[in-house]
From TrEMBL:
SUPFAM superfamilies: PLP-dependent transferases (SSF53383). Gene3D superfamilies: Type I PLP-dependent aspartate aminotransferase-like (Major domain) (3.40.640.10). This is Aminotransferase class V domain-containing protein. It holds the Pfam family Aminotran_5. It comes from the Eukaryota. InterPro entries: Aminotrans_V_dom, PyrdxlP-dep_Trfase, PyrdxlP-dep_Trfase_major. It comes from Anisodus tanguticus. Residues 152-336 form the Aminotransferase class V domain.
Length: 598
């Protein structure tokens, strides 16, 4: 009964935006809040007590079998059995994961195409990226919708994100870092001088924004995250956001993610609302959000001035892609003109254009011709007769201009992004429940691993940020410690995982605040980011020193299944074997030394 009660928990919990409505309308909703709290507490309590109660594992060979573990998983989360459509999509459209026996836990963002969709079309990509030397403001005002390929994908993405083209304009950027840099180069820091960010980790994109903004005179500020649970230090952040009543000028740019892409921590919508009330422009970083998470985002209540999200091509096979920068049309006029790189066009594949070249064998030319035909069949969705398809083919003319080529598309067809379509067909509830069950089981299982022959029950795994929790994201940050209490290097864990066909990532936690009672733990835990020693002069000049914690990171996609998390658990459990750890450390250091000598 308890398990069934927990399984329906998502239905009894209201949309989190109702809490925001309460904040804005000042109408108390005590019954809703108490029901929400009870549901979430019940979920966490049942998850903790249902898996391996009063049991810890000190030997990787003593773990329960996959079949036994999965049976207990389904008993605790019976609604997982209502998600067979996800498994069907995975088996049909992403069969390469099974063929290669690959566990992909290193993809952040949202995919565009399925593996089947791309490989039915030979080995050619669906589009290439071409850089544009234009400034952001000009592109937003005069860039238009671009080619048919671009406008079709823009329309798909705007619909997927529930964003209105009447209110927002979109540009494509080479990656997430480029999008952040474009904003920092164009934002009017002279009149709105502050940059306030809310990130519990370092990233190239954030570093790019901070450095660029600082050079332009911005006053850099950051939220802090309170040790040990790494929750936002609310008291400090509130002081940074709220302006004095006498001052009415614009405060600056508030950069806010709804979820941490490293720890999986979820943050309240109310921070954006509070920032807007106090004169900040809001940049919403949606790159860490999972598929359909935007369905719970109330754009009717909160209209961010900027939004950044990223897309990759094919899950588990092609992580390349692009980012999208959306700008509210009402703020475009305040942006400053700046010539920079980063904005890109999506163009038909280079291989298609190269087919204009008469060189090549007959077989190669035949392959290119087949590719053009398959491109039309697979990229285009809609009900067309064979005659209409032939007409559309004749309407596409490829014009060569020396070394520069372009495609003129006159058809009115729609580009098919099959991965987005799959996510739309599954919906928020099915995807959200499934991922919630998997990540919380994994956390529960990892916390059951303890080193043998230790009287203090020393754990193998330390998880940073939220642990078992209903509303957490599906990213997770952790470290492994040997029986002596020494950390196993994240890069070593990543390399060993690769050897076992499991893809992980690593990151760097930062902006942490330690209360006085944790001072001793701080001294043991905090480290300087690798590579910073060489840049000591630059660090002093910018008055910033990157201190934090290197961690292993994972993220579960909507295609993740129980076998994925079980395999990760059994892989991690190998580190309970002290001989295994020492042997792999020696092998890694030996190979690393040889690389340096070469």
């Amino acid at each position: 009964m308890e398990a069934e009660k927990v399984a329906t928990i998502h239905g009894c919990c209201p949309n989190p935006l109702l809490i925001l409505l309460e904040h804005q309308n000042q109408q108390p909703l005590p019954k809703i809040k108490s029901t929400t709290s009870a549901c979430r507490h019940s979920f966490a309590a049942t998850t903790t007590s249902s898996f391996f109660p009063n049991t810890h594992f000190t030997n990787h060979e003593s773990l329960p079998s996959y079949q036994e573990s999965f049976a207990q998983f389904l008993k605790t989360y019976p609604k997982y059995s209502e998600t067979p459509q996800v498994d069907k999509i995975r088996n049909q459209e992403y069969y390469h994961l099974s063929v290669s026996n690959h566990v992909c836990l290193d993809y952040i963002g949202i995919g565009l195409f399925s593996y089947l969709q791309v490989h039915e079309c030979c080995d050619y990509p669906f589009f290439d990226i071409s850089c544009k030397s234009v400034n952001l403001k000009s592109e937003l005002l005069h860039g238009g919708n671009g080619s048919h390929l671009e406008s079709s994908i823009k329309k798909k993405i705007m619909n997927f994100l529930n964003m209105s083209s009447n209110e927002y304009s979109m540009v494509f950027t080479a990656n997430r870092s480029s999008a952040f840099k474009l904003i920092s180069e164009s934002y009017p820091f002279k009149t709105s001088p502050k940059l306030l960010t809310v990130y519990d980790h370092e990233s190239e994109a954030l570093e790019t924004m901070v450095n660029t903004s600082e050079k332009r005179g911005a006053n850099i500020m950051s939220a802090e995250f309170k040790w040990p649970r790494l929750r936002i230090n609310s008291e400090k952040l509130r002081k940074l956001i709220i302006r004095k009543k006498r001052k009415k000028e614009s405060r600056g740019l508030f950069v806010f993610p709804l979820q941490s892409r490293v720890t999986g921590a979820s943050y309240s919508y109310q921070w954006m609302s509070l920032a807007q009330e106090n004169g900040w422009h809001v940049l919403l970083d949606a790159c860490a959000l999972g598929p359909k998470d935007m369905d719970s985002f109330g754009l009717s209540l909160i209209h961010p001035d900027f939004l950044i999200c990223s897309f990759y091509k094919v899950f588990g096979e092609n992580p390349t892609g692009f980012a999208c920068l959306l700008v509210k049309k009402s703020v475009v006029s305040m942006l400053e003109a700046s010539v920079s790189t980063g904005i890109v066009s999506l163009v038909p594949p280079t291989q298609l254009l190269n087919s204009l070249d008469s060189s090549g064998s007959g077989t190669e030319l035949e392959q290119k011709t087949n590719y053009v035909n398959k491109l039309d069949e697979l990229h285009i969705s809609g009900s067309y007769s064979a005659q209409e398809k032939r007409k559309e083919e004749s309407d596409q003319s490829i014009i060569a201009q020396g070394s520069n080529t372009k495609v003129e598309e006159k058809g009115s067809t729609e580009i098919q992004c099959r991965c987005l379509d799959h996510v739309d067909s599954l919906g928020l509830m099915q995807i959200g429940n499934r991922r919630r069950y998997l990540v919380n089981w994994l956390i529960s299982a990892l916390l059951k691993l303890q080193h043998p022959n230790r009287l203090d029950h020393f754990p193998l795994v330390k998880i940073y940020g939220p642990k078992i929790k209903f509303e957490r994201g599906t990213a997770m940050a952790f470290n492994l410690f040997d029986w002596k209490g020494e950390r196993v290097e994240p890069i070593l864990i990543q390399k060993l995982a690769d050897r076992n066909n499991i893809s992980l990532s690593h990151g760097f936690l930062s902006h942490m605040w330690f209360p006085d009672k944790y001072e001793e733990e701080k001294q043991r835990t905090i480290e300087r980011k690798k590579g910073e020693e060489k840049d000591d002069a630059d660090s002093k000049k910018s008055k910033r020193i990157d201190l934090g914690i290197s961690v292993v990171t994972i993220a579960l996609s909507f295609l993740a299944n129980f076998e994925d998390v079980y395999r990760l658990w059994t892989f991690i459990a190998q580190f309970l074997d002290a001989d295994f750890v020492e042997k792999e450390r020696w092998r890694y250091s030996s190979l690393y030394q040889k690389t340096i000598e070469v």
